[in-house]
Amino acid sequence: MAADLSQLVKAYDVRGVVPDQWDESLAELFGAAFVQVTGASAIVTGHDMRPSSPGLSRAFARGAAAQGVDVTEIGLCSTDQLYYASGALDLPGAMFTASHNPAQYNGIKMCRAGAAPVGQDTGLTEIRELVENWTESSAPAAKAQPGTITQRDTLEDYAAHLRSLVDLTSIRPLKVVVDAGNGMGGHTVPTVFGGLPLDVVPMYFELDGTFPNHEANPLDPANIVDLQQRVRDESADLGIAFDGDADRCFVVDEHGAPVSPSAITALVASRELAKHGGKGTIIHNLITSWSVPEVVKENGGTPVRTRVGHSFIKAEMAKSGAIFGGEHSAHYYFKDFWNADTGMLAALHVLAALGGQDGPLSGLVAQYDRYAGSGEINSTVADQAGRLAAIKAAYQGQEGIELDELDGLTVTAADWWFNVRPSNTEPLLRLNAEARDETTMTKVRDEALAIIRG
């Protein structure tokens, strides 16, 4: 009987519980399917610190090598370090990680040569179909001449590339607390930050895929409480938290107050535009703050609004030749990094901006944080389409209100907006609201929630 991979293969990656939903035998089939779909003659693989990652990664390499493909294993790495290897070596790549998910999960993030994404519409559906067919009949025949599996360390090269993109040599000394959450930031930060004028206070740098201190998901406020307190205790200039595979970074200011990813997007956008002579396209998804397109225009750039999700951002980056893109979830994409996302490069930009002037981070980001936002609020609903239709009916035809359905439903007025979009994988509706002041935002948020939960 064919394995049902519908719960394992998501829109952008493979992710599930080990060994309940997948194991090394399936990983081997994914390796074979990956090389068949990409047509690769050589690939690169890497993995995070989860207990199951080395075995799954090696099984994938075996499956690929059996198809005559040479595999370069870079071993322990962050996801953006794997993207670096895919870009620098011009090879398709596979990263074994479940990002911020709990310890029993694992997954694969795959890309074509040059870190181009492999998602539902760009090869992942075909990979899934091949693996399902092979579990039903027989696995693919091995080639007479198998490929080689070799190891290569790319950490120093990755760090050097990032540091070539942001000049931190002349900044004032900064004290920065870094919470790696027992994830891959503990592996990459010492090399990337080493030798810079930074006094780094490490938190949870020990690689431990069981996450003994807190979940490696800084998007949840509960998981940055330790960082916030440590920044205040150390009188640090800022704090930085990375998620489990260290492709996203979150920032808190000198008071321990979270800096919104929209403010970071606007700050980095202004720096990237300055680097490109005040010209260029900046991508932002439709639930980033109004401040992002405003700052982009003020700095001479062209803002382009997209759906939520890295495959949409990366596709638009490639299509428009954008120099930078940012999402509310703290994914930051750079043309100088093969259009891929790297939280580490965004962190370097923040450090360079802060260290290049004398004021505190709270003062620096104030110019980029102009509105009151709700953050993302999830509601469990049985009928997503019905609730969206109810919201549309409530606001449609009202004077001064515009509706658009680029991604879910966005309702916009002169002083506020909100977006409601369904989850792809759970019976949830996600609400984001923003307004020119806190009182208006609260009113708009509560009105929308009343209909969603009605």
TrEMBL record:
Record domain Alpha-D-phosphohexomutase alpha/beta/alpha: where: 7-136, 156-256, 263-371
Cofactor(s) demanded: Mg(2+)
Recorded superkingdom: Bacteria
Keyword Iron recorded: no
Keywords, ordered alphabetically: Isomerase, Magnesium, Metal-binding, Phosphoprotein
Domain Alpha-D-phosphohexomutase C-terminal positions: 376-448
Keyword presence, Phosphoprotein: yes
InterPro entries in the cross-refs: A-D-PHexomutase_a/b/a-I, A-D-PHexomutase_a/b/a-I/II/III, A-D-PHexomutase_a/b/a-II, A-D-PHexomutase_a/b/a-III, A-D-PHexomutase_C, A-D-PHexomutase_C_sf, Alpha-D-phosphohexomutase_SF
Signal peptide as annotated in the record: none
Family affiliation: Belongs to the phosphohexose mutase family.
Protein name: Phosphomannomutase/phosphoglucomutase
Organism: Streptomyces lanatus
UniProt lineage: Bacteria, Bacillati, Actinomycetota, Actinomycetes, Kitasatosporales
